[in-house]
Amino acid sequence: MSVGEELTAARVRAGLTIEELSAATRIRPGLLTAMEADDFVRCGGNFYARGHIRSIAKVLGTDPAPLVESFNAGQAEPEVDRSRREERADAKSPTVHPARPRWAVVLGAILVGLLGWGMVRLFTLPNDVEANASKNSPGPVVVTKATPSKPGKKPTVRTTIRKPVVPKTVRVTLTGVGEGSYVSMRNIKKARLFDGILRSGSTQSMTYGGAIRVDIALPKNVKVYINGRAVVPKTPRFLVSLTGKLEARP
Predict the structure, then answer these.
(1) Which of 74, 113, 135, 193 has the fewest CB atoms below 10 angstroms from its CB?
(2) Mean pLDDT throughout 61-69?
(3) CB neighbours (10 Å) of residue 219?
(4) 18: Cβ contacts below 8 Å, ≥ 6 apart
């Protein structure tokens, strides 16, 4: 049995269509169809073909080592697609731009100078007014300063604002229904927490001290519970925060 036929048989055993396998592996449906027909040229080289075979086997629950060994036995030495070599050959060297004056520094120095001049004028303006008044008036100028009366003190009311308590963990529970679906749970740094096929009647629960990224290939075949509360996500890819709130992801 060829590599393509073994991939097809494994997919049929897992009960997945080409589209569902594409959603789980991020490999285009057209490329998956070509690989099942033993056409690995579209992978861009033997190196990329081996990587696709390992990804497909991982999702289908099959040992990738025999598949990769069969692929190596029927292929020549690994070589990269010619178009990729031409892309590297056509890569341009980095462009060095001449140094430009730091206009932000110059503008900041001008603003500081204007601010200092304004402060000097502000504190010297009353003296200039008094000097001009003494020259124009025949008699002495008497400056009277009014003392404002002190208003009565009002009682001080202290208001204590309590910060909302943020939970330390969040629990996400996924239950398969119908024909089941492929599901994936990862943390905010995309580190894997759970990957696999959730069949009808099976449940996968994850309690984690941070946000959880959830991907569901067939949302209608999976029920979602956040901290024991049933929710209905609007998109197959969403983020569950520590507070239990759902946020859609592209």
Answers:
(1) 135
(2) 90
(3) 18
(4) 11, 29, 32, 33
Q: Give the type of residue at 39.
A: D
Q: Is the dihedral of CA 121, 124, 125, 131 positive or negative?
A: negative
User: 31: which 2 tokens?
Assistant: 């490329």
Spatial neighbors of 135 by CB under 8 A, at least 6 apart, are none
Strands, E, within 14-93: which ranges?
none
189 near 210, Cβ under 8 Å? no
Give the amino acid at 49. Answer: A
- What is the fold of 170-248? Immunoglobulin-like (2.60.40)
48 pLDDT above the threshold of 90: yes
CB of 14 closer than 8 Å to CB of 60 = yes
Asked whether the beta carbons of 44 and 80 are under 8 A apart, the reply is yes
Q: How far apart are CA 212 and CA 184, in angstroms?
A: 10
CATH of domain 3-84: 1.10.260.40
Where in the chain are all domains bearing CATH 1.10.260.40? Answer: 3-84
Task: Answer whether residue 30 shows pLDDT above 80.
Answer: yes
Q: What pLDDT score does 92 carry?
A: 45
Please give the model's pTM, rounded to 2 decimal places.
0.38
pLDDT above 50 (res 90): no
pLDDT at 166 over 90: no
